[in-house]
Task: structure prediction
Amino acid sequence: MRASPHRELGLTDGEYELILQKLGRDPNGLELAVFSLMWSEHCAYKHSKKLLGRLPTEGPHLLMGPGENAGAVDIGDGMAIAFKVESHNHPSAVEPFQGAATGVGGILRDVFAVGARPIAVLDSLRFGELDSPRSLYLLDGAVSGIGHYGNSIGVPTVGGEVYFEAAYEQNCLVNAMCLGIARHERLTSSAAAGVGNLLVLMGARTGRDGIGGASVLASAELDSEDESKRPTVQIGDPFEEKRVMEACLELLDRGTLASLQDLGAAGLSSSSSEMASKGEVGLDIDVSAVPVREDDMEPFEIMISESQERMLAVVEPDRLAELEEVCERWEVGSSVIGSVTDTRRLRVLDGAELVGDMPVEALVDDCPLYDLEPAAPEAQIYPAPEAVLESEDPALILPALLGSPNLASRRPLFEQYDSLVQSRTVRRPEQADAAVLQLYPGQAAATEEERSPSTGPGSPGIAVAIDGNGRRVACDPYTGTVEAVLECAANLACVGAEPLGLTNCLNFGNPEKPHVAWQLERSVAGMADALTELGVPVVGGNVSLYNESGGGPIYPTPVVGMVGAVPDTALAPGYGFAREGDAVALVAARGAKVSARGSELAKLAGEELPLGLTPIDVGAVREVIELVREGARSGALASAHDVAEGGLAVALAECAVAGGIGAIVGWDGDEDPVQLFGEGAGRFVVSGRTEAIEALGPLATRIGTVGGAALSIGPVDWEVAQLRGASEALAAAFA
Amino acid sequence: MRFGVVRFPGSCDETDALLACRRYADAEILWHGDRDLHGVDAVVVPGGFSYGDYLRVGAIARFSPVMEAVGELAASGGHVLGICNGFQVLCEAGLLPGALLPNAGRRFLCRQVDVEVVRADSPFTRMAAPGQILSIPVKHTTGRYYAPGEVLESMNAHGQIILRYAEGHNPNGSVGDVAGVSNEAGNVMGLMPHPEHAVDALTGSEDGGVIFESLAQVADASDETGIRAGLVDDAA
Result:
């Protein structure tokens, strides 16, 4: 042993002292390894936990809040939606295909661990600029990996988002969100219960993959020696997970299990100690009973392995045979590896030999939590983007923006995802601002076989969207995060959905640096304030820190995923213009302001990122969101689209391209591109019959009429075909 | 009339196929390890990634006990429909001619495409009109239909090309735009597009329903006549 192995494992001297106190002796190697993982940032949230307490976690629809594998909300008729977003950033930066694939695998396990059948996946991706070969490689690998896992397991990938910014060149972000459906009574806790009950490890064998992932990969900055970390990236097997998932769901349907937990970061160590902590019990684990891929694995390796496709269940002894029968039928391995005790200790045995003995409370609850030391930077810390187009001419700017990587059509990406399997997808990618899934009551039948076919129109459902523009947050962590929450709510409003809950993934740099701490603190404050105003609770989420390298921190990137209820999915508008002659209106919040600061227009021109965005009146935006939601869910609107990146002109162009029909929009000839391309929260482009548009009231201003093969804004015309061509710029990246 | 839908380990679209079948008839799941088809009138081999697509798509599934029974059903003239991975399985099992190769684009592709009904007199398409265009999604990595020239000629001669991708809609480089084929007897069909994902306008299209509806009616008719197989012309 070296002089200070705890430092090698990422523990500070102070933390090590505390471990000595808790144990009352020196830890052995296994215990030190387990502590180092449980007290890592990834598992213990030691730099973020205090902040996260500021987020609202109560709401009328909430069934299961933060702390379980996934949160859940009530959607009526005795059905629940469980959902969560999680990051797999560092593994994806090392090996994008497997990193992204196992990210999907992990979030799927989180959802079926709570007893919900996964029904949808969304992804949120960030890469460097597309002219970088490394970014192209990462993009291609991550998209293939997400598709590989989701497609193979039969869960549709229904939405997502991607941005390309130089700040992500060294640290790409791969966040995956999953939603699952369950009847209320099937929602399952991971709390281990029942002294004397058996602990059963199900699924894949345990190998050396991912050892040290949680402490070495997820909690330290990446350096130039990424190659040496390749063995710590896990390899995914969706075929294994599919069988594990079906077996687990069947076992939960039958009520065979007392509790269930997935194995993620830190493997058996974290899953067992968290189950024991929640259940206020102890666990004995015999590592010699764990099926391994390699014979000579050390006990500590078995305890911290991050091999994929494994689940940990607690079962009463007299129901073990039932568990084994189901697992055998699904060709899923299962092994009794231990039992529930009343000791409140995690005891690790190797056969008869005790090789580790740790208090559960010390592992899960006693990691020191750190106060951040935030300090606002005096000047913007991120360099200006490279100028792409220096022109004031709207005729040139619009196609340039539509073809820019952040705005171009995502078709070449989402066509690699099965968005249809399970027959719930009513609005697919690039049809509407949010994905819409039908969830009529027959959908939550106990087994898939008992599902009844859709009854057609009148079928209720849910909508889901995921958002988070890091560059805006880099300009202003508070306001940028408020915008992300509002944009997500606005996307739901466009399909008529009322938000029920939100999950978040906070992707930031090193929180020990004062300016990153400031970004994190301001961002969480903005999220808390916006959610409180909207009345939407956080149901759970994930924090990914230390996303930085030699090139500095990533843009601070809070990603939010929101789920909402849609009374009649058939009425959910798309964003494409629908009918010749419909009125086009701009619906804007009272006092809504637009500005070029931090916009895609400013990026195109290579302008510096400002420090500070125009403050937002969240109450006024809430009012306009509710107005659009009512219009959308009542069937009054033929199309509805949130005005976001690229401003009003880009929103109009997207409506025209999606609908395959143009529009004539009046414009008073003001040549200022900011009015056309400037950005700001609380604006929508909607279309519909004149009476329906007029009925929206004073927040809606008619600006034009749908029709023709061209989009005309004042004196400038663009053929819709030309705009479509411009928007297809990403196809070249996948040629 | 009752459909059976096979479930292999790794099947993904079996519930979708089951729900599609139930719009037109009764339907139940058939377990891969079970040789007994429970007396169903027609079998759907659904899409997905049976056995993880390991070794080669469809290559392992063909050896499952249920496929022995499906082979016997087909030999006795019973109706068998293979969708996507099911099509691949039926080709591997030798119940259909040709093979499915990796897409020309080499990537998984999920896209709504137009498919033209070439034969509207097959048991699988008799409720469609000749030349009718069906909007049905494809979603696969390995869907490029291939058969040697002489095999294709023979298939054409025997009217075994049931569906083609409409002009400009071939998503994968399939030879002759072939989207769906039958065996020579006409009682087994495979197609790469997913008609089970096109049975409800709410979720994008109801054009695929015609396949299940045709099959349901044929099976009902053959129940009455005692004829279990063959093209409708032969049965009539």
Q: What stands out?
A: The interface with chain B takes residues 144, 147-148, 151-154, 237-240, 242-243, 330-331, 414-426, 428, 438, 448-449, 451-454, 456-457, 459, 569-570, 734 of chain A (CB under 8 Å). The longest strand of chain A covers residues 117-127.
